[in-house]
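Trying the structure run again after the queue cleared.
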Amino acid sequence: MTSTYVPLWCKSNGSFLEGASHPEELVLEAARLGLPAIAVTDRDGVYGIVRAHVTAREQHMKLIIGAEVTVGAETPGEAASRIVLVAADRRGYANLCRLLTIGRQRQPKGQSEVSWMEVCAHAEGLLALWGGEGSCLVRTGADPDAVARPLGEAFGDRLYALVARHYRDSEVTEEARLRARAARYGLPVVAAVEVRYHDRARRPLQDVLTCLRHEVTLHTAGRRLAPNGHHALVDPAAFAARFADDPVAVARTLDVAARASFSLSELRYRYPAERVPGGLTSSAWLHRLAREGLRTRFDGHVPAAIAAQLERELALIDELDYGGYFLTMYEIVAFCRRRDILCQGRGSAANSAVCYCLGITAVDPVRMGLLFERFLSRERAEPPDIDLDIEHERREEVIQHVYSVYGRDHAAMVCNIIRYRPRAAGRDVGKALGIPETALDRAAKPVARYGAVEEGVLTHVRAEESRGALDHL
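Done. C-alpha coordinates:
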Protein backbone atom coordinates (compact mmCIF):
# COMPACT_ATOMS: atom_id res chain seq x y z
CA MET A 1 0.00 0.00 0.00
CA THR A 2 1.32 3.44 -0.91
CA SER A 3 2.29 5.73 1.94
CA THR A 4 1.11 8.91 0.25
CA TYR A 5 -0.98 10.23 -2.64
CA VAL A 6 -1.53 13.34 -4.76
CA PRO A 7 -4.88 15.21 -4.79
CA LEU A 8 -5.70 15.54 -8.49
CA TRP A 9 -9.04 17.37 -8.41
CA CYS A 10 -8.91 20.58 -6.37
CA LYS A 11 -10.89 23.77 -6.84
CA SER A 12 -9.82 27.11 -5.43
CA ASN A 13 -12.00 30.18 -5.01
CA GLY A 14 -11.16 30.87 -8.64
CA SER A 15 -14.07 28.49 -9.26
CA PHE A 16 -16.34 31.38 -8.39
CA LEU A 17 -18.91 30.65 -5.68
CA GLU A 18 -17.83 27.01 -5.56
CA GLY A 19 -14.32 26.73 -4.14
CA ALA A 20 -14.08 28.04 -0.57
CA SER A 21 -10.29 28.35 -0.19
CA HIS A 22 -7.64 30.53 -1.75
CA PRO A 23 -5.13 28.75 -4.02
CA GLU A 24 -2.41 29.51 -1.49
CA GLU A 25 -4.37 27.83 1.28
CA LEU A 26 -4.72 24.64 -0.75
CA VAL A 27 -0.98 24.51 -1.42
CA LEU A 28 0.00 25.33 2.17
CA GLU A 29 -2.35 22.69 3.57
CA ALA A 30 -1.01 20.09 1.13
CA ALA A 31 2.51 20.93 2.27
CA ARG A 32 1.47 20.68 5.91
CA LEU A 33 -0.02 17.24 5.25
CA GLY A 34 3.26 16.11 3.72
CA LEU A 35 1.86 15.57 0.23
CA PRO A 36 4.43 15.57 -2.61
CA ALA A 37 2.26 17.57 -5.02
CA ILE A 38 -1.19 19.05 -5.57
CA ALA A 39 -3.28 19.74 -8.66
CA VAL A 40 -5.33 22.92 -8.99
CA THR A 41 -8.16 22.21 -11.43
CA ASP A 42 -10.65 25.06 -11.31
CA ARG A 43 -13.98 24.96 -13.10
CA ASP A 44 -13.55 25.95 -16.76
CA GLY A 45 -10.46 28.04 -16.10
CA VAL A 46 -6.94 28.31 -14.73
CA TYR A 47 -7.68 31.24 -12.45
CA GLY A 48 -5.86 30.07 -9.34
CA ILE A 49 -2.66 28.69 -10.81
CA VAL A 50 -0.44 31.79 -10.66
CA ARG A 51 -0.97 32.31 -6.94
CA ALA A 52 -0.73 28.56 -6.37
CA HIS A 53 2.50 28.46 -8.40
CA VAL A 54 4.13 31.19 -6.32
CA THR A 55 3.22 29.48 -3.06
CA ALA A 56 4.23 26.03 -4.32
CA ARG A 57 7.61 27.40 -5.36
CA GLU A 58 8.11 28.85 -1.89
CA GLN A 59 7.14 25.49 -0.34
CA HIS A 60 9.32 23.51 -2.77
CA MET A 61 6.21 21.59 -3.77
CA LYS A 62 5.18 20.39 -7.20
CA LEU A 63 2.09 22.09 -8.62
CA ILE A 64 0.02 20.23 -11.21
CA ILE A 65 -1.98 22.49 -13.53
CA GLY A 66 -5.33 21.61 -15.02
CA ALA A 67 -9.03 22.42 -15.17
CA GLU A 68 -12.41 20.77 -14.84
CA VAL A 69 -13.90 21.26 -18.29
CA THR A 70 -17.65 21.38 -18.96
CA VAL A 71 -18.65 19.36 -22.02
CA GLY A 72 -22.00 19.95 -23.70
CA ALA A 73 -24.61 17.30 -24.32
CA GLU A 74 -24.38 15.40 -27.59
CA THR A 75 -28.15 15.01 -27.91
CA PRO A 76 -31.08 17.31 -26.97
CA GLY A 77 -32.28 16.85 -23.42
CA GLU A 78 -29.07 15.20 -22.25
CA ALA A 79 -27.24 16.80 -19.32
CA ALA A 80 -23.83 18.39 -19.76
CA SER A 81 -20.84 16.35 -18.62
CA ARG A 82 -17.38 17.19 -17.36
CA ILE A 83 -13.84 15.93 -17.50
CA VAL A 84 -10.69 16.92 -15.60
CA LEU A 85 -7.78 17.75 -17.91
CA VAL A 86 -4.22 18.06 -16.61
CA ALA A 87 -1.26 19.54 -18.47
CA ALA A 88 1.51 16.98 -18.95
CA ASP A 89 3.74 19.41 -20.82
CA ARG A 90 3.82 22.87 -22.31
CA ARG A 91 1.92 21.77 -25.40
CA GLY A 92 -0.80 20.40 -23.15
CA TYR A 93 -1.07 23.69 -21.27
CA ALA A 94 -1.45 25.55 -24.55
CA ASN A 95 -4.15 23.12 -25.67
CA LEU A 96 -5.96 23.44 -22.36
CA CYS A 97 -5.98 27.24 -22.61
CA ARG A 98 -7.19 27.11 -26.22
CA LEU A 99 -9.97 24.71 -25.27
CA LEU A 100 -11.12 26.92 -22.40
CA THR A 101 -11.06 29.96 -24.67
CA ILE A 102 -13.29 28.18 -27.18
CA GLY A 103 -15.72 27.26 -24.43
CA ARG A 104 -15.87 30.78 -23.01
CA GLN A 105 -16.21 32.65 -26.28
CA ARG A 106 -19.44 30.95 -27.33
CA GLN A 107 -21.23 31.10 -23.97
CA PRO A 108 -22.72 33.93 -21.88
CA LYS A 109 -20.44 35.57 -19.36
CA GLY A 110 -19.53 33.19 -16.53
CA GLN A 111 -20.26 30.04 -18.53
CA SER A 112 -18.22 27.69 -20.70
CA GLU A 113 -18.98 24.65 -22.79
CA VAL A 114 -17.06 22.61 -25.34
CA SER A 115 -17.85 19.46 -27.31
CA TRP A 116 -16.25 16.05 -26.97
CA MET A 117 -14.91 16.49 -30.49
CA GLU A 118 -13.13 19.67 -29.38
CA VAL A 119 -11.72 17.92 -26.30
CA CYS A 120 -10.29 15.20 -28.54
CA ALA A 121 -8.90 17.76 -31.00
CA HIS A 122 -6.92 19.38 -28.15
CA ALA A 123 -5.77 16.17 -26.45
CA GLU A 124 -2.06 16.44 -27.22
CA GLY A 125 -0.01 16.97 -24.08
CA LEU A 126 -3.00 16.50 -21.75
CA LEU A 127 -3.93 13.81 -19.24
CA ALA A 128 -7.67 13.14 -18.97
CA LEU A 129 -9.39 12.09 -15.74
CA TRP A 130 -12.90 11.02 -16.74
CA GLY A 131 -15.48 10.52 -14.02
CA GLY A 132 -16.85 12.15 -10.91
CA GLU A 133 -20.38 13.31 -10.18
CA GLY A 134 -22.05 14.72 -13.28
CA SER A 135 -19.87 12.78 -15.72
CA CYS A 136 -21.55 10.70 -18.40
CA LEU A 137 -19.22 7.86 -17.34
CA VAL A 138 -21.10 7.78 -14.01
CA ARG A 139 -24.69 8.84 -14.69
CA THR A 140 -27.44 6.28 -14.93
CA GLY A 141 -29.17 6.23 -18.28
CA ALA A 142 -26.15 7.79 -19.99
CA ASP A 143 -24.50 5.93 -22.84
CA PRO A 144 -20.80 6.86 -22.89
CA ASP A 145 -19.92 4.39 -25.66
CA ALA A 146 -19.99 7.08 -28.34
CA VAL A 147 -17.67 9.23 -26.22
CA ALA A 148 -15.28 6.53 -24.99
CA ARG A 149 -14.03 5.54 -28.42
CA PRO A 150 -12.89 8.98 -29.65
CA LEU A 151 -11.47 9.79 -26.18
CA GLY A 152 -9.49 6.56 -26.21
CA GLU A 153 -8.16 7.26 -29.69
CA ALA A 154 -7.21 10.85 -28.81
CA PHE A 155 -5.67 10.31 -25.36
CA GLY A 156 -4.47 6.70 -25.53
CA ASP A 157 -2.87 5.67 -22.24
CA ARG A 158 -3.35 9.23 -20.95
CA LEU A 159 -7.05 8.57 -20.30
CA TYR A 160 -8.05 7.48 -16.76
CA ALA A 161 -11.34 6.68 -15.04
CA LEU A 162 -11.73 9.00 -12.05
CA VAL A 163 -13.29 7.37 -8.96
CA ALA A 164 -14.26 9.96 -6.33
CA ARG A 165 -15.51 9.15 -2.84
CA HIS A 166 -17.23 11.56 -0.46
CA TYR A 167 -19.16 9.09 1.72
CA ARG A 168 -22.49 9.61 -0.06
CA ASP A 169 -24.95 6.72 -0.39
CA SER A 170 -25.44 7.27 -4.11
CA GLU A 171 -21.71 6.89 -4.76
CA VAL A 172 -21.85 3.15 -4.16
CA THR A 173 -23.99 2.42 -7.22
CA GLU A 174 -22.35 5.23 -9.22
CA GLU A 175 -18.90 3.81 -8.59
CA ALA A 176 -19.98 0.29 -9.50
CA ARG A 177 -21.36 1.65 -12.76
CA LEU A 178 -18.17 3.62 -13.45
CA ARG A 179 -15.90 0.66 -12.73
CA ALA A 180 -17.91 -1.59 -15.02
CA ARG A 181 -17.68 0.94 -17.82
CA ALA A 182 -13.98 1.57 -17.16
CA ALA A 183 -13.32 -2.16 -17.44
CA ARG A 184 -15.28 -2.27 -20.68
CA TYR A 185 -13.14 0.50 -22.15
CA GLY A 186 -9.87 -0.72 -20.62
CA LEU A 187 -9.34 2.42 -18.52
CA PRO A 188 -7.07 2.45 -15.45
CA VAL A 189 -8.82 3.72 -12.33
CA VAL A 190 -7.39 6.63 -10.32
CA ALA A 191 -8.68 7.68 -6.88
CA ALA A 192 -9.73 11.22 -6.03
CA VAL A 193 -11.68 13.55 -3.80
CA GLU A 194 -13.29 16.62 -5.30
CA VAL A 195 -11.58 19.16 -3.06
CA ARG A 196 -13.57 22.37 -2.62
CA TYR A 197 -11.80 23.71 0.47
CA HIS A 198 -8.54 23.06 2.27
CA ASP A 199 -10.09 22.43 5.70
CA ARG A 200 -13.45 21.02 6.82
CA ALA A 201 -14.05 24.19 8.82
CA ARG A 202 -14.78 25.90 5.50
CA ARG A 203 -17.76 23.65 4.79
CA PRO A 204 -20.36 26.18 6.15
CA LEU A 205 -18.82 28.86 3.97
CA GLN A 206 -18.97 26.59 0.94
CA ASP A 207 -22.67 26.08 1.62
CA VAL A 208 -23.19 29.84 1.64
CA LEU A 209 -21.29 30.20 -1.64
CA THR A 210 -23.45 27.49 -3.19
CA CYS A 211 -26.57 29.41 -2.17
CA LEU A 212 -25.21 32.62 -3.67
CA ARG A 213 -24.37 30.80 -6.90
CA HIS A 214 -27.87 29.34 -7.25
CA GLU A 215 -29.65 32.38 -5.77
CA VAL A 216 -31.34 30.39 -3.02
CA THR A 217 -31.22 30.39 0.76
CA LEU A 218 -29.80 27.71 3.02
CA HIS A 219 -33.36 26.69 3.89
CA THR A 220 -34.38 26.21 0.25
CA ALA A 221 -31.08 24.96 -1.24
CA GLY A 222 -31.97 21.30 -0.79
CA ARG A 223 -29.74 18.89 -2.73
CA ARG A 224 -27.72 21.73 -4.20
CA LEU A 225 -25.69 21.60 -0.97
CA ALA A 226 -23.14 18.85 -0.37
CA PRO A 227 -24.55 16.41 2.21
CA ASN A 228 -21.35 16.38 4.28
CA GLY A 229 -17.95 17.99 4.76
CA HIS A 230 -15.85 15.37 2.98
CA HIS A 231 -14.61 17.72 0.26
CA ALA A 232 -11.49 18.84 2.13
CA LEU A 233 -7.86 17.87 1.71
CA VAL A 234 -7.01 14.85 3.86
CA ASP A 235 -3.76 13.34 5.05
CA PRO A 236 -2.30 10.25 3.34
CA ALA A 237 -3.55 7.85 6.01
CA ALA A 238 -7.13 9.10 5.74
CA PHE A 239 -7.04 8.96 1.95
CA ALA A 240 -5.64 5.42 2.01
CA ALA A 241 -8.37 4.40 4.45
CA ARG A 242 -11.04 5.89 2.20
CA PHE A 243 -9.79 3.72 -0.68
CA ALA A 244 -8.59 0.78 1.42
CA ASP A 245 -10.17 -1.67 -1.01
CA ASP A 246 -8.23 -0.24 -4.00
CA PRO A 247 -4.65 0.77 -3.05
CA VAL A 248 -3.69 0.55 -6.74
CA ALA A 249 -6.01 3.49 -7.54
CA VAL A 250 -4.33 5.45 -4.73
CA ALA A 251 -0.82 4.66 -6.01
CA ARG A 252 -1.91 5.65 -9.50
CA THR A 253 -2.32 9.26 -8.31
CA LEU A 254 1.46 9.33 -8.01
CA ASP A 255 1.82 7.96 -11.54
CA VAL A 256 -0.43 10.70 -12.92
CA ALA A 257 1.49 13.33 -10.97
CA ALA A 258 4.79 12.05 -12.35
CA ARG A 259 3.48 12.38 -15.91
CA ALA A 260 2.31 15.96 -15.31
CA SER A 261 5.69 17.65 -15.62
CA PHE A 262 4.57 21.09 -16.85
CA SER A 263 5.38 24.16 -14.73
CA LEU A 264 4.58 27.82 -15.21
CA SER A 265 8.32 28.43 -14.89
CA GLU A 266 8.65 27.14 -18.47
CA LEU A 267 6.63 30.02 -19.88
CA ARG A 268 8.16 33.11 -21.32
CA TYR A 269 6.16 35.74 -23.08
CA ARG A 270 6.72 35.78 -26.83
CA TYR A 271 6.10 39.22 -28.26
CA PRO A 272 4.18 39.44 -31.54
CA ALA A 273 6.26 39.75 -34.68
CA GLU A 274 5.47 43.20 -36.02
CA ARG A 275 5.19 43.87 -39.71
CA VAL A 276 8.53 45.35 -40.77
CA PRO A 277 9.88 46.51 -44.15
CA GLY A 278 11.19 43.71 -46.33
CA GLY A 279 14.68 42.50 -45.58
CA LEU A 280 14.77 43.91 -42.01
CA THR A 281 14.53 42.08 -38.71
CA SER A 282 12.48 43.42 -35.81
CA SER A 283 15.71 44.46 -34.14
CA ALA A 284 16.98 46.33 -37.17
CA TRP A 285 13.64 48.08 -37.63
CA LEU A 286 13.54 49.15 -33.97
CA HIS A 287 17.09 50.52 -34.24
CA ARG A 288 16.19 52.50 -37.35
CA LEU A 289 13.02 53.98 -35.86
CA ALA A 290 14.77 54.90 -32.60
CA ARG A 291 17.70 56.60 -34.31
CA GLU A 292 15.45 58.48 -36.71
CA GLY A 293 13.32 59.56 -33.75
CA LEU A 294 16.44 60.73 -31.93
CA ARG A 295 17.45 62.97 -34.83
CA THR A 296 13.92 64.33 -35.06
CA ARG A 297 13.76 65.07 -31.32
CA PHE A 298 16.95 67.16 -31.46
CA ASP A 299 16.56 68.55 -34.96
CA GLY A 300 19.76 66.84 -36.08
CA HIS A 301 21.90 68.20 -33.21
CA VAL A 302 22.04 65.13 -31.00
CA PRO A 303 23.84 65.39 -27.63
CA ALA A 304 26.46 62.69 -27.19
CA ALA A 305 25.08 61.61 -23.81
CA ILE A 306 21.63 60.64 -25.04
CA ALA A 307 23.02 59.05 -28.21
CA ALA A 308 25.22 56.81 -26.04
CA GLN A 309 22.30 56.04 -23.73
CA LEU A 310 20.13 55.08 -26.70
CA GLU A 311 22.72 52.60 -27.97
CA ARG A 312 23.11 51.03 -24.51
CA GLU A 313 19.36 50.57 -24.22
CA LEU A 314 19.02 49.10 -27.70
CA ALA A 315 21.79 46.60 -26.95
CA LEU A 316 20.05 45.44 -23.76
CA ILE A 317 16.66 45.25 -25.51
CA ASP A 318 18.25 43.02 -28.17
CA GLU A 319 19.92 40.85 -25.54
CA LEU A 320 16.67 40.30 -23.65
CA ASP A 321 14.62 39.99 -26.86
CA TYR A 322 12.09 42.69 -25.97
CA GLY A 323 12.22 44.48 -29.32
CA GLY A 324 8.79 43.25 -30.40
CA TYR A 325 7.16 44.82 -27.35
CA PHE A 326 8.59 48.25 -28.12
CA LEU A 327 7.47 47.98 -31.73
CA THR A 328 3.95 47.05 -30.63
CA MET A 329 3.73 50.07 -28.36
CA TYR A 330 5.17 52.26 -31.11
CA GLU A 331 2.50 50.98 -33.53
CA ILE A 332 -0.31 51.84 -31.09
CA VAL A 333 1.09 55.31 -30.40
CA ALA A 334 1.57 55.94 -34.14
CA PHE A 335 -2.08 55.03 -34.74
CA CYS A 336 -3.16 57.50 -32.05
CA ARG A 337 -1.04 60.23 -33.62
CA ARG A 338 -2.54 59.59 -37.06
CA ARG A 339 -6.07 59.83 -35.66
CA ASP A 340 -5.34 62.82 -33.39
CA ILE A 341 -6.13 60.73 -30.31
CA LEU A 342 -4.46 62.08 -27.19
CA CYS A 343 -1.96 59.48 -26.01
CA GLN A 344 0.96 59.63 -23.60
CA GLY A 345 3.30 57.06 -22.04
CA ARG A 346 3.79 57.37 -18.30
CA GLY A 347 5.42 55.73 -15.31
CA SER A 348 8.86 54.15 -15.46
CA ALA A 349 8.76 54.16 -19.29
CA ALA A 350 9.72 57.84 -19.02
CA ASN A 351 13.17 56.64 -17.89
CA SER A 352 13.84 55.14 -21.32
CA ALA A 353 15.61 56.94 -24.15
CA VAL A 354 14.16 54.41 -26.61
CA CYS A 355 10.61 55.28 -25.52
CA TYR A 356 11.45 58.97 -25.83
CA CYS A 357 12.86 58.58 -29.33
CA LEU A 358 9.89 56.47 -30.46
CA GLY A 359 7.48 59.17 -29.32
CA ILE A 360 5.95 56.99 -26.63
CA THR A 361 7.02 59.38 -23.85
CA ALA A 362 7.73 63.11 -23.89
CA VAL A 363 10.55 63.51 -21.36
CA ASP A 364 14.26 63.43 -22.16
CA PRO A 365 15.46 60.95 -19.51
CA VAL A 366 19.14 61.91 -19.78
CA ARG A 367 18.52 65.62 -19.31
CA MET A 368 16.23 64.87 -16.36
CA GLY A 369 18.72 62.43 -14.82
CA LEU A 370 16.29 59.49 -14.81
CA LEU A 371 17.57 55.98 -14.16
CA PHE A 372 16.91 53.55 -17.03
CA GLU A 373 17.42 50.51 -14.76
CA ARG A 374 14.24 51.44 -12.92
CA PHE A 375 12.43 50.63 -16.17
CA LEU A 376 14.50 47.71 -17.49
CA SER A 377 17.52 45.86 -16.17
CA ARG A 378 19.30 42.60 -16.84
CA GLU A 379 19.41 41.74 -13.14
CA ARG A 380 15.69 42.12 -12.52
CA ALA A 381 14.95 39.61 -15.29
CA GLU A 382 11.39 40.75 -15.94
CA PRO A 383 9.83 42.42 -18.99
CA PRO A 384 9.37 46.19 -19.08
CA ASP A 385 5.99 47.78 -18.50
CA ILE A 386 4.90 50.63 -20.75
CA ASP A 387 1.66 52.28 -19.63
CA LEU A 388 -0.26 54.43 -22.10
CA ASP A 389 -2.82 57.02 -21.07
CA ILE A 390 -5.40 57.41 -23.85
CA GLU A 391 -8.25 59.91 -23.80
CA HIS A 392 -11.24 58.01 -22.51
CA GLU A 393 -13.74 59.28 -25.10
CA ARG A 394 -11.74 57.63 -27.89
CA ARG A 395 -10.19 54.67 -26.09
CA GLU A 396 -12.59 52.26 -27.80
CA GLU A 397 -11.18 53.28 -31.19
CA VAL A 398 -7.73 52.18 -30.06
CA ILE A 399 -9.05 48.91 -28.64
CA GLN A 400 -10.78 48.06 -31.91
CA HIS A 401 -7.63 48.99 -33.82
CA VAL A 402 -5.60 46.51 -31.74
CA TYR A 403 -8.17 43.80 -32.43
CA SER A 404 -8.11 44.52 -36.16
CA VAL A 405 -4.30 44.53 -36.40
CA TYR A 406 -3.53 41.50 -34.24
CA GLY A 407 -6.79 39.57 -34.47
CA ARG A 408 -9.11 38.54 -31.66
CA ASP A 409 -7.23 35.26 -31.30
CA HIS A 410 -4.11 37.18 -30.26
CA ALA A 411 -5.47 40.19 -28.37
CA ALA A 412 -7.59 40.30 -25.22
CA MET A 413 -8.81 42.58 -22.50
CA VAL A 414 -7.26 41.86 -19.11
CA CYS A 415 -9.78 41.63 -16.27
CA ASN A 416 -9.55 42.62 -12.64
CA ILE A 417 -10.82 40.32 -9.93
CA ILE A 418 -13.41 42.27 -7.97
CA ARG A 419 -13.37 41.88 -4.22
CA TYR A 420 -16.34 42.29 -1.94
CA ARG A 421 -16.31 45.07 0.62
CA PRO A 422 -17.58 44.15 4.10
CA ARG A 423 -20.98 45.77 3.59
CA ALA A 424 -21.66 43.95 0.30
CA ALA A 425 -20.35 40.71 1.80
CA GLY A 426 -22.73 41.03 4.70
CA ARG A 427 -25.66 41.64 2.38
CA ASP A 428 -24.98 38.63 0.16
CA VAL A 429 -24.26 36.26 3.03
CA GLY A 430 -27.36 37.55 4.80
CA LYS A 431 -29.47 36.80 1.75
CA ALA A 432 -28.12 33.24 1.67
CA LEU A 433 -29.12 32.88 5.32
CA GLY A 434 -32.61 34.17 4.53
CA ILE A 435 -32.31 37.34 6.60
CA PRO A 436 -34.80 40.09 5.64
CA GLU A 437 -33.39 43.02 3.67
CA THR A 438 -34.18 45.47 6.44
CA ALA A 439 -32.06 43.53 8.90
CA LEU A 440 -29.01 43.41 6.67
CA ASP A 441 -28.19 47.09 7.05
CA ARG A 442 -28.07 46.70 10.82
CA ALA A 443 -25.87 43.60 10.47
CA ALA A 444 -23.36 45.13 8.04
CA LYS A 445 -21.31 47.07 10.59
CA PRO A 446 -20.65 44.18 13.00
CA VAL A 447 -19.71 41.92 10.09
CA ALA A 448 -17.13 44.47 8.92
CA ARG A 449 -15.07 43.73 12.03
CA TYR A 450 -14.75 40.06 11.13
CA GLY A 451 -13.90 39.86 7.47
CA ALA A 452 -14.84 40.41 3.87
CA VAL A 453 -15.60 38.29 0.88
CA GLU A 454 -12.57 38.21 -1.40
CA GLU A 455 -13.06 36.80 -4.86
CA GLY A 456 -16.19 35.03 -3.68
CA VAL A 457 -14.72 33.76 -0.41
CA LEU A 458 -15.34 35.13 3.07
CA THR A 459 -11.89 35.95 4.45
CA HIS A 460 -11.86 35.09 8.12
CA VAL A 461 -9.76 36.83 10.73
CA ARG A 462 -10.02 33.71 12.88
CA ALA A 463 -12.17 30.64 12.40
CA GLU A 464 -13.95 31.23 15.72
CA GLU A 465 -14.70 34.85 14.92
CA SER A 466 -15.90 34.06 11.41
CA ARG A 467 -18.38 31.51 12.72
CA GLY A 468 -19.47 34.10 15.25
CA ALA A 469 -20.03 36.62 12.47
CA LEU A 470 -22.25 34.19 10.58
CA ASP A 471 -24.12 33.35 13.77
CA HIS A 472 -24.59 37.04 14.48
CA LEU A 473 -26.09 37.54 11.01
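Strands lie at 37-43, 62-71, 81-87, 126-131, 159-164, 189-192, 343-346, 387-390, 451-454, 457-460. Worth checking whether this holds up in the mutant runs.
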